[in-house]
Amino acid sequence: MSLLAMILLASAAGGLLSVLLASVALNLKAEWVPVMVSYAIGALLGAAFLEILPHAMEHAGGFGTLSGTVLAGIFGFFILEKLVLWRHCHTEHCEAHGAPAGAGHGHDHGRAGLMITVGDTVHNFVDGVAIAAAFLVDVRLGVVTAFAIAAHEIPQELGDFLILLHSGYSKVQALMLNLLSSAAMLLGALLGYFLLTPLHNLLPYMLALAASGMIYVAVADLIPGLHKRVELGHTAQQALLIGLGVLTVWGAGGLAERWMSGHGPLSALAKEYS
Fold it and tell me: Rounded CA gap, 18 and 186, in Å?
C-alpha cells in the first residue's frame, strides 16, 4: 500500500466512519453525548501534546518559531470561530447557529443547517491536511492523528445531525449532507499530500498548526460544555474519561510503534517512508 493510499484510507476512516457512527448514536440517550465529548477532549489533548508537538519539535529548527506557530494557529482558529466557520455544536440548541432554546418543533428554514454544513466542510478539509502532514512526517504519527480526529468527529457529527434535523431536514438528508461534508477531509488530505511532499521544511509548522487546532477545539469548544454539570460525580466521570482518551492515544502510539518496528504488518511501510 502506498503512502498516499494510507493517507486517503485514514482520512476516509476519520470522516466517513465518524458520520456513520454518529448517525447510529442518534438512537442513544442524550446522556451519552457528554461521555463522547469528554473522551474526545482527552484524545485531542493527548495527540497534540504527546505525539504531534514532540514530532514537530524534533524536526523544527527552533522551539521559538514553533511555539509562535502554535500561538498564531490558536488565534487563527479563534477568528474562524468568530466568523462562524468553525463552530462545533454538540446539542440541538447552539448559540452559534441560531437554534434557540424552546423552539419546539419550529424550523429555521435551513439557515442553521446550511451554516453548520459550511463550517463542518471547512473543518474537515483542514483535518485532512493535518492527517496528510502527520503521515508525511511519520506513519505512526499519522495513525495516531487520524485516531484523535475520528474521536472528536463522532460527537461533533452527532451535534450536526441534531441541528440539521431541527432545521427541517429529514434523517436521510442530514446523513447525505454530513457525508458530503466529510468528503472534504479526503480532498484536504489529497491536496495536503501533493502540496507538502516537496515542502518538507514546512511540515513541522503544519504539525504545529494541527496541534493548535486540536488544543483550541478541546479547550475553547469542548471543555466549556462540560462545566454545565458541576456535580462531583459528573466531574469525576468527566476527568476519568478525559484521562481515558489520553491513555488511548498513548496506547495507540505504542501499538503503532510496535507494528512498525518489525513486529507487525506495517513495519515495511514504516521503513520505506521513514
Answer: 13
